Design the sequence.
């Protein structure tokens, strides 16, 4: 009878997500992962197969958590209010391992290496963009945004603004709160 693992896989993926988010793919060694996960090399490979496989799981966890948070906000506040709240919330998230978007950081880091994980991160960014477009469509249906606007174009711009905001929040001397307020205010003119 095979021995059952003595760890919670989801918790380990969450820990891995946080170290990858802070340090990036190249900046995180197998030794770093073994230390943060409290696993020996054999156990690590048995549980995850490879660093790349664990990184992909971490990316998916990051994206799934963001999607769930966005949907919960939309259910509670409605589409337009969520789009206005979200910029402030992403930079005020005290539980976040870093301010900058893990998906965007991955695309920037791994595209130059022609690494398949850059493609996966880009696909997850496109899924997030589609969720934002869905919120813009809902806001149009609610009468909060004019029908003349293209929800997909609004979503692309909004996501770009969020990525820029999150990078700005990592920098010293930048008032990220003011930028978040400007993004929210810009939605009043739609």
Sequence:
């Amino acid at each position: 009878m095979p021995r059952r693992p003595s760890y919670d896989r989801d918790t380990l993926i969450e820990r891995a997500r946080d170290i990858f988010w802070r340090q990036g793919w190249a900046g995180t060694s197998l030794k770093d992962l073994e230390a943060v996960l409290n696993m020996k090399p054999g156990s690590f490979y048995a549980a995850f197969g490879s660093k790349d496989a664990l990184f992909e799981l971490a990316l998916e966890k990051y994206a799934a958590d963001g999607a769930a948070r966005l949907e919960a906000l939309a259910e509670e506040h409605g589409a337009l209010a969520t789009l206005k709240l979200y910029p402030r919330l992403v930079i005020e998230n005290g539980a976040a391992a870093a301010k900058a978007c893990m998906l965007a950081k991955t695309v920037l880091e791994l595209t130059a290496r022609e690494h398949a994980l850059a493609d996966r991160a880009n696909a997850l960014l496109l899924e997030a963009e589609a969720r934002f477009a869905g919120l813009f469509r809902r806001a149009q249906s609610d009468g909060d945004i004019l029908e003349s606007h293209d929800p997909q174009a609004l979503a692309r711009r909004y996501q770009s603004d969020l990525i820029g905001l999150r990078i700005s929040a990592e920098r010293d001397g930048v008032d990220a709160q003011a930028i978040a307020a400007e993004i929210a205010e810009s939605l009043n003119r739609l």
In short: DSSP finds nine helices and no strands in the chain.
